[in-house]
Amino acid sequence: MTAFLKMHGLGNDFVVFDARDSALTLSADQVRKIADRHFGIGCDTVVVIRPGGAAADANIQFYNADGAESESCGNATRCVARFLMDERGLARVKLATKGGLLVCSDAGKGLVTLDMGEPRLDWGALPMSAPVDTINFPLDIGGNQIPASAVSVGNPHCVLFVPDAEKAPVAALGSKIETLPLFPNRVNVEFAQVLDNGRIRMRVWERGVGITLACGTGAAATA
């Protein structure tokens, strides 16, 4: 029997395993079974906390609901940071991920601030299969040219600015864009509506998961 935590950030939910003091290996099939909302525990992402070494307080691995490993996950990182800060009485932790080192700080009242680092706008960093201007390029979807932007914040994102996020075909377009050959590692897709100078309404299709209630890296990529 293995203990776990069930955590969420704004409804983006996780099953978290603490493997700092024990060996834990998860197969893709095991991850899918854990993430299954009908026959498993149910979550968007399975998270494993491992020893951090000299450079970090802990190392985190992320597995999306389809069993594939992800480079980074903003909301899951905030959850793990809250867990570690409460455990150790810390106000700041450094967490190593496949997408880079993430620094988290206690923002008071249970909140956690996450420094995602500098966004990467080079097409090769996402990666993409061909050179494009990542700030504004056309996506060919069924013969239709859709303006898009792409950015990596440790994991890859494709952002579409739309007139109405609520009416955006998130499931239909998100699933198509995620698997385009242009994105060899697949991609998260955001549908963003600029409400005013300080607010954006964003909906997300997460790679290997589908529609989720929130996405920390997606919010950072959109901003």
Entry keywords:
223 residues; alpha+beta; eight-stranded mixed beta sheet; 14 strands
Write up what this structure looks like.
The protein is α+β, with helices and mostly antiparallel strands and 223 residues long. Helices cover 17% and strands 39% of the residues. It has helices at 28-35, 74-88, 170-178, 216-222, and strands at 5-9, 12-18, 45-51, 58-64, 69-70, 92-97, 100-108, 111-115, 137-141, 144-152, 156-161, 188-196, 199-206, 210-212. Strand 6 and strand 7 (100-108) form a beta hairpin. The longest helix has 15 residues, at 74-88. The N and C termini lie far apart (42 Å). The mean pLDDT is 96.
Topology diagram in text:
Elements: E1 5-9, E2 12-18, H1 28-35, E3 45-51, E4 58-64, E5 69-70, H2 74-88, E6 92-97, E7 100-108, E8 111-115, E9 137-141, E10 144-152, E11 156-161, H3 170-178, E12 188-196, E13 199-206, E14 210-212, H4 216-222
Parallel strand pairs: 2-3, 4-6, 11-12
Antiparallel strand pairs: 1-2, 3-4, 4-5, 6-7, 7-8, 9-10, 10-11, 12-13, 13-14
